[in-house]
Amino acid sequence: MKASILRATVGLVAVLGGLLVASPAQAADGADSVRVRYPSWTSVSGGLATANLDFVGQKTVVFRNFTVRDICPGDGRPVRAYMTMWGTNGVRRTWASPKADTNGCGPNGTNFGTVTLKTSLTVARAGLTVCVYTNSAGNLRCVYSGGRDNPYVSAPGTGR
């Protein structure tokens, strides 16, 4: 009787333990953000980009609640953000046209909602890039986020 209770208990623990392990998609999907400071790295002003990344395959990433914010006090420079991806070959690419904060120094930034990016590139990692820029000189300073790993891809060569 004790042996059968022991076997039942061990079996139950094994099943419940298996339920507690996160699947790869749960481990890799999630929030990502990046902050750029301008004119100096210790400055308060600059910009912020945030999104929740959801990988839906090797070549598709959904950026949910994609928001770009110009942080004040104002430096007189606008900010914009890009979706950034690293291929399985380690090459970083910036995709799509930039998204710029249209609220100026508003406290909430500009939310672009859900942006789905489908590429021909096998995406090992995806994240955000935020830049302070001028219309005449282009990007003055950009910062890349740490990004998130794609659970649908094994990514040798990315260093991650």
What does this structure look like?
The chain has 160 residues and is an alpha+beta fold. Strand 4 and strand 5 form a beta hairpin. It starts with a helix and ends in an 11-residue tail after the last strand.
Defining key terms:
elongated, 160 residues, single chain, 5-stranded antiparallel β-sheet
Q: In what range is the share of β-strand residues?
A: over 45%
Low-confidence stretches: 1-27, 155-160
Shape: elongated
What is the makeup of the main sheet?
A: 5 strands, antiparallel
- Fraction of residues in helix: 10-25%
In whole angstroms, how far apart are the ends? Answer: 50 Å
Number of DSSP-assigned strands: 10
- SSE order, as H and E? HHEEEEEEEEEE
Class from helix and strand fractions: alpha+beta
Radius of gyration from the alpha-carbon trace, in angstroms:
21 Å
Number of helices: 2
Rounded mean pLDDT is 80
Subunit organisation of the chains: single chain
List the helices and strands and how they pair.
Blueprint: H1 2-20, H2 24-28, E1 30-37, E2 46-55, E3 60-71, E4 79-87, E5 92-100, E6 110-111, E7 115-118, E8 123-134, E9 138-144, E10 148-149
Antiparallel strand pairs: 1-2, 2-3, 3-6, 3-7, 4-5, 4-8, 8-9, 8-10
